[in-house]
Amino acid sequence: MATFTTRTVTTIRREWIVPAAEPWGAPSAEVVKAWQAAEAAYREAHSLPADTPLADNALSLHPTDDAIVISFTTEEPRP
User: Fold this and answer.
1) pTM: predicted TM-score of the whole model, two decimal places
2) Which pLDDT band holds residue 1 (cuts at 50, 70, 90)?
3) Is 11 within 8 Å of 77 (Cβ atoms)?
4) What is the average per-residue pLDDT within 45-50?
5) What is the pLDDT of residues 49-59, one digit of tens each?
6) Distance from first CA to last CA of the chain, Å, rounded?
7) What residues are paired with 76 via a beta bridge?
8) Beta-carbon contacts of residue 78 (< 8 Å; ≥ 6 apart)
Protein backbone atom coordinates (compact mmCIF):
# COMPACT_ATOMS: atom_id res chain seq x y z
CA MET A 1 0.00 0.00 0.00
CA ALA A 2 1.34 3.43 -0.97
CA THR A 3 1.57 6.24 1.54
CA PHE A 4 1.31 9.74 0.11
CA THR A 5 -0.35 13.10 0.46
CA THR A 6 -1.61 15.53 -2.11
CA ARG A 7 -2.06 19.27 -2.29
CA THR A 8 -3.27 21.91 -4.70
CA VAL A 9 -1.35 25.17 -5.02
CA THR A 10 -2.49 28.42 -6.57
CA THR A 11 0.30 30.34 -8.31
CA ILE A 12 -0.11 34.09 -8.70
CA ARG A 13 2.10 36.01 -11.12
CA ARG A 14 2.25 39.79 -10.64
CA GLU A 15 3.52 41.85 -13.59
CA TRP A 16 4.55 45.47 -14.18
CA ILE A 17 4.62 46.23 -17.90
CA VAL A 18 6.60 49.15 -19.30
CA PRO A 19 5.88 49.96 -22.97
CA ALA A 20 9.02 49.76 -25.09
CA ALA A 21 7.94 50.32 -28.67
CA GLU A 22 10.58 50.41 -31.38
CA PRO A 23 12.65 52.29 -32.25
CA TRP A 24 12.86 54.16 -28.92
CA GLY A 25 12.52 51.40 -26.35
CA ALA A 26 11.55 52.11 -22.74
CA PRO A 27 12.71 55.18 -20.85
CA SER A 28 15.01 54.09 -18.02
CA ALA A 29 13.09 56.25 -15.53
CA GLU A 30 9.90 54.31 -16.26
CA VAL A 31 11.70 50.97 -15.87
CA VAL A 32 13.10 52.13 -12.51
CA LYS A 33 9.62 53.23 -11.33
CA ALA A 34 8.13 49.87 -12.30
CA TRP A 35 11.01 47.99 -10.63
CA GLN A 36 10.53 49.98 -7.41
CA ALA A 37 6.78 49.28 -7.44
CA ALA A 38 7.39 45.57 -8.04
CA GLU A 39 9.97 45.48 -5.26
CA ALA A 40 7.54 47.12 -2.82
CA ALA A 41 4.80 44.65 -3.76
CA TYR A 42 7.22 41.72 -3.35
CA ARG A 43 8.17 42.96 0.12
CA GLU A 44 4.50 43.29 1.06
CA ALA A 45 3.64 39.83 -0.30
CA HIS A 46 6.46 38.26 1.73
CA SER A 47 6.22 40.54 4.80
CA LEU A 48 9.79 41.77 4.35
CA PRO A 49 10.96 45.04 5.93
CA ALA A 50 12.38 47.75 3.67
CA ASP A 51 15.94 47.24 4.93
CA THR A 52 16.07 43.49 4.13
CA PRO A 53 17.93 42.80 0.89
CA LEU A 54 15.97 40.85 -1.72
CA ALA A 55 17.31 37.64 -3.19
CA ASP A 56 18.87 38.07 -6.62
CA ASN A 57 16.07 36.04 -8.19
CA ALA A 58 13.17 37.73 -6.36
CA LEU A 59 12.12 39.73 -9.43
CA SER A 60 12.37 38.79 -13.09
CA LEU A 61 12.86 41.09 -16.07
CA HIS A 62 11.54 39.88 -19.44
CA PRO A 63 11.92 41.89 -22.65
CA THR A 64 9.12 41.30 -25.13
CA ASP A 65 8.54 42.67 -28.63
CA ASP A 66 6.98 45.88 -27.38
CA ALA A 67 7.43 46.00 -23.59
CA ILE A 68 9.64 45.21 -20.63
CA VAL A 69 7.87 43.02 -18.08
CA ILE A 70 8.97 42.90 -14.44
CA SER A 71 7.37 40.12 -12.44
CA PHE A 72 7.35 37.77 -9.47
CA THR A 73 5.24 34.80 -8.48
CA THR A 74 3.82 33.60 -5.20
CA GLU A 75 2.24 30.28 -4.30
CA GLU A 76 -0.61 29.74 -1.88
CA PRO A 77 -2.06 26.43 -0.75
CA ARG A 78 -5.70 25.90 -1.69
CA PRO A 79 -8.10 24.66 0.94
Assistant:
1) 0.83
2) confident
3) no
4) 94
5) 999 999 999 99
6) 26
7) 10
8) 7, 8, 9, 10
Instruction: Kindly tell me the burial class for residue 38, based on how many C-beta atoms sit within 10 Å of its own C-beta (0-12, 13-18, 19 or more).
Output: buried
What DSSP character marks residue 58? Answer: S
Residues in the chain: 79
pLDDT at 22: 84
CA distance 37 to 44: 11
Decide: 35 and 59 in contact? Cβ < 8 Å: yes
Contact 59, 5 (CB under 8 A): no
Answer whether 43's CB lies under 8 Å from 50's CB: yes
